[in-house]
Amino acid sequence: MNTIQILITDDDIEIAELIKIYLTNEGYQVLIAGNGREAMEVIAKEDVQLMILDVMMPEMDGLEVVRAVRAQYGIPILMLSAKAEDMDKIMGLTTGADDYMVKPFNALELIARVKSLLRRSNYLNTQLHAAQEQDIIQIHPLKISKKSHTVTVEDRGINLTSTEFDILYFLASHAGQVFSAEAIFEAVWKDKFLDSTNTVMVHISKLRDKLDSELGGVKLIQTVWGVGYKIDS
Questions:
Q1: The OmpR/PhoB-type domain covers which part of the protein (predicted)?
Q2: The domain at 136-231 falls in which architecture?
């Protein structure tokens, strides 16, 4: 039986209970929080392995919750919103969410997204226990540690989300090779590419901003126009 715990955070209790039914039928253990502050308390006490989070909530909205979670935890976050505009999706992803769905949503798609995020999280956790000699990647002054999930420049840590780290590690571990947005998505998200170019671009843009700032303007991630992205060794 599945022992994965998923936390649903939504002030609309009817939607939260409906999602709980979907997930419970798949064998997951489900917790519900009615607001962001309650969600942070639950995460501190329970072994939550994935979070489904509404954007529009009173007191502490979804974006604030994502920032608070990302400051302490690396769990996958799936955001839900009644807003379908691209800017709202971009805000959610750049804040640190791993995926974004618009309400009303299809139950089967929600389950598929949850399974995809959990698959990727499980794969990465497995990879973190790989052989020691594969742990450190050094590119220029940048040191990437898969084991500790850290990125440093001259002993200064760079605060990346789990998705940003995954993209950086993937490109760095294949230095010199060019990868399309489709290839990056399938390698990092561990799922089939379904027109997710914008998702990849948003994460890479945010990752670049952080890296360029720490590397004094050096452009580590290169764009090969019409082809994809690469990191030179």
A1: 134-233
A2: Orthogonal Bundle (1.10)
